[in-house]
Each structure stands twice: as C-alpha cells, then as structure tokens.
Amino acid sequence: MFFHNELAALAVRDGNTSQQFRAAAQKHANATWFFLIVAGAVWYFSSLMWSLIPFALATFVTIKSITATAVAIKLEKSENPSS
Length: 83
Prior knowledge:
The protein has helices at residues 2-14, 18-45, 48-79. It is an all-alpha fold. It is 88% helix and 0% strand. The mean pLDDT is 92.
C-alpha cells in the first residue's frame, strides 16, 4: 500500500484527479478483456505457447488497472476528506 500512497502523492503534485485515474483504470480493464479474447483465439488456432504472450499482456494491464483504481481511491479520500 505504501507504493499506492507514493503514486497518489505524485498524482496530486502533478495536478491529476481521481476521475482521470478511474478513466485509466477502465481503459486498462477493457484492454484486459481484449488481450484475453486474443489469447483465447491464439490458443484455439495456434498453440498454448503463442497464447502466453497475450496472456502476459492481459496480466500486465490487469495490474495497471488495479493500481489505477487504488490510486483513484486514495485521491478521492484526499479530495473529499469528509468521506
């Protein structure tokens, strides 16, 4: 969680908002589905070995989506301290 606090502090310093991070998280979530569909198609038409590439990309963008969501939550707490 310390990493997310540092990212939130950098976001505040750069003037980013929680809505920007929510949008990025949704974009990465959509990319995850795309890569999973591509991985399934590659696995069906080719082999498991080749499908590991899009599976790895799906894992990477999933982590980015989770991180962007965590930072958005931290920013929302700082933007609305009464919540």
